Amino acid sequence: MKLLVTLKRTPQRDARIRISEGGNSLDLDNVQFEVNPFDELAVEEALRIREAVGEVEVVVTTVGGEECEQQLVSALAMGADRAVRVDHPGQLDSLQIARALAAVAWKEEPDLVLAGKLAVDDECGQVPAMLAGLLGWPQANQASSIELSEDRSSARVVCEVDAGLETVTLAFPAVVMADLRLNEPRYASLPGIMKAKKKPIEILSLEALGDMGDLQCRVTGFQALVDKPPGLKVESVSELVRALEEKKLI
Amino acid sequence: MTDTLIIIQAASGELSKSDLSAAGFGRAAATAAGGGFDVLLLGPMAVDLSSSAGMIGAGKVFTMSSPELDVYTAEAYAAAVAAFLDGRSYRLVAAATSSATKEYFPRLAATLAIPMASDVLKVESVDSQKAVLTRAVFVGNLLATVELEAPQALVTCRASEFDAQVPTAEASPVEEVATPDGLSHPGKAFVGIEAASSDRPDLKEADIIVSVGRGTRGPDEGIPLCERLADILGAALGATRAVVDAGWLANEFQIGQTGKIVAPDVYLAIGLSGSIQHLAGMRNSKTIVAINKDPEAPIFEVADIGLVADLFDAVPELTAALEKRGG
Using one digit for the tens of pLDDT, what is the confidence trace for B86-121? Predict the structure, then answer.
């Protein structure tokens, strides 16, 4: 059985992101990067599936420049078997990235693709579902539990939807997007980090994978939120009630 | 090709506040593009909803239903919209952000090979080749201007940022559209849904939300006090990630980056510190009231009214005071 995990290099979750002068781009010079936290959940889930059923190859993949190999190495250090980087240093939109990942998926023929439900930088949450659409595979989003069938040909997935917990079954091949409560990702062990250095990272050129289409979606500017003026401090519940009454809120 | 299509999932017999706000987005997009907007009702209640959907200013209301759309699946809904759009030209195709549209809109975008903008807050401009939209990035800490360069694009819009369309006097024409077979994916099956039953309003519909954090110490301690307060106010109950992770409340109560994004008239934050992920889900509430015993809690930075107090004293006192004045 083969699992393909797609991941993205994103700024560290507590990084302070500044807008560059002029407001057209972000100043990421002094920012540390990590595996997008939701993708890390997907890596962890793949490793747990391997531990549970054995004879599973876990392949991690990303689309981007050489710097993204740091994040592939992080996933290899957690325990993934090998990595594939689609080389493209420039800007791509969600659909182009999904097309590149679809090309990787056609080549690798995994039983299941796992990805995070959202990247914490642009927060689009588009690529994995686009990938499912391009592949024509069934999908499940916001997964909080994935249970493989006895014969490993399908999975029962619990999804955190607006109304509650929805359960669906997916016949493989399929795409599942990880949500927060799916698992607690492990830290890479020291032996894991040592081993990762020897694990293969295959580099594919984007052009060789085919035509990814035009860039149709671009971010052209950023704005910081305007700080809110300090609010009213009340000293007691009766003052709070009075303040709410004055604002005609109750 | 200047019109916008608004898609509404017709699962219940009533239009929700989100549906009306999606129509508000339709109005905003239509104004920018110089066209109008139509509505597509998709699902088992499509025909039942068509009379109320016909009173919100749409040029036309279309309905699509079939046994394959009775229960939502991303695969069937994406296929149904793709079938509907075949031979019809809309400038933008939009719906309110929901767990369903988060899932099936990107799938649809991929099959139509058109770009998409997620959870849009504002329409800046729309012409025949380019749509310029504003959306939040980095846990809501920054706003980004996004340009979709294509004659057709998909948009999910954050319902709380658009005015609900008010009922119009004139009814829009309604057309039932033939729904093709074979929409479902043979590899996908819906098993069931588990939802906490509650008499309180839905988070996305509520004017007032009482939201609880870890400081409430759980269902045997502070949460019932907050529930009583919510009931006096006719408010919905919300929660932080920590509360849901602890199993104190179900996932559908969670507000934040994971969970729901809300902007009610009044947001009462009780015993919650205000992580950036939580703030991302509620910072646009009209009035934020915070009760927390820690004066340094970040929630006070966004609160319009703040009370530094022990919730175990303040919440019962507030409930009693509101009860006395009759709600």
Answer: 999 999 999 999 999 999 999 999 999 999 999 999
Say what the pTM is. 0.97
Looking at beta carbons, which residues of chain A come within 8 Å of B318? 237, 240-241
Assess contact for B152 and B93: CB atoms under 8 A: yes
- Nearest 5°: the CA angle A74, A79, A81 is 100
Closest CA relative to residue A28, chosen from A118, A101, A122: A122
Q: Where are the alpha helices (DSSP H) in chain B?
A: 17-33, 46-53, 74-85, 99-112, 222-233, 241-245, 276-279, 299-302, 311-324
| Chain B residues in contact with A159 (beta carbon < 8 A) | 99
> CA-based angle A97:A98:A101, to the nearest 5?
85
For position A250, what pLDDT does the model report? 86
ipTM surpassing 0.90: yes
Confidence of residue B1 (pLDDT cuts 50, 70, 90): confident
**CA-derived radius of gyration, chain B:** 21
| Residue B80 contacts residue B42 (beta carbons within 8 Å) | yes
- Give me the total of CB pairs closer than 8 Å, taking one residue from chain A and one from chain B: 251
- Structural domains in chain A, CATH included, are 2-246 (3.40.50.620)
Tens digit of pLDDT for each residue in B170-206?
Answer: 999 999 999 999 999 999 999 999 998 788 999 999 9
- Under DSSP, the state recorded for B313 is H
Instruction: Give, in words, the CATH class of B4-176.
Output: alpha beta
At B259, give phi and psi (nearest 5°): 115, -155
Interface-testing mutation among B133, B203, B210, B305, with chain A (most A C-beta atoms within 10 A): B305
Domain ranges, ordered by start, for chain B? 4-176, 208-324
CB-based contacts of B24: which residues, under 8 Å, 6+ apart? B162, B163, B164, B165
Classify domain B208-324 by CATH architecture.
3-Layer(aba) Sandwich (3.40)
Q: What is the pLDDT of chain A when averaged over all its residues?
A: 97
User: Residue B327 above 70 pLDDT?
Assistant: no
